[in-house]
Amino acid sequence: MHWAAERTSTSSISALSFTFCCGDGRVRLPAFQPLPTYLYSLHSPSAEAVRFRTNIRSYDSAFAFTSIDCTPTTRGVGMSGVQVLQIHGALHHRNGPIEETGEDSLPSYAQLYFHDPQYAASIRAQRNPHLDERILQQLTSMLCEVNNPYINIYRTAKERLCEAASNDTRVLLTSNLRFTLETGTDRRLENIPTSDEVAAVIPDTAASETCRPIVLEARNSSALFRITATHPTYMPLHYILMFPCGDSGWHPGLTLSENSSRASLKLT
């Protein structure tokens, strides 16, 4: 969104042109991978596609790895007009334990990706009775078929935590998707071997001291770890159907392309 006064000096009110957002053409975003065939079909006029688009936000939330944390307000509730969610303060994405915390508790968020796809789809349908279970099953299978990297990354993290078999062990996932095992009260760090890590389309330049790693723990019901908004996975871990192939979101490692030398300069 821009103010009219932010238009370029050569544009007019009837033909607005803005270059602030793209750095006058110097910001070159990597192209997204093509949509998976099934997800593309849900943009058609078919009855199934219409049902999907009617509840598209609920479908996307059903597949999220992370939860949302905010403080809603009741200001304006009950008034005429379009009803919108209003919050007070900041909106955060949080990452919880990767194992269920109780014997009778059902898996949720990232925990669902460690189960059989058909079972995971049935749990999503149980939690969202207004959604079409067949569509949920198809979307679950689709994410496995396109090899969404975060599914394998979380599975690898869980394997590492199971191998460590300690309540005082956790996995740190850095901004360039490298694993670090953190153990003991002194928080000793140990780099996890990368032989079976999943390749991800995030450059090393994405790493930043101001970008805190994602914390993954096996069981800790009292802790929900906040994901910093500058982490490349901030968007794709929550809006799965917008990033089905795991394309990275905005991060400080994005570069500018100078027309004169074509040299890459950091965006921030």
From TrEMBL:
This is Helitron helicase-like domain-containing protein. It comes from Cochliobolus heterostrophus (strain C5 / ATCC 48332 / race O).
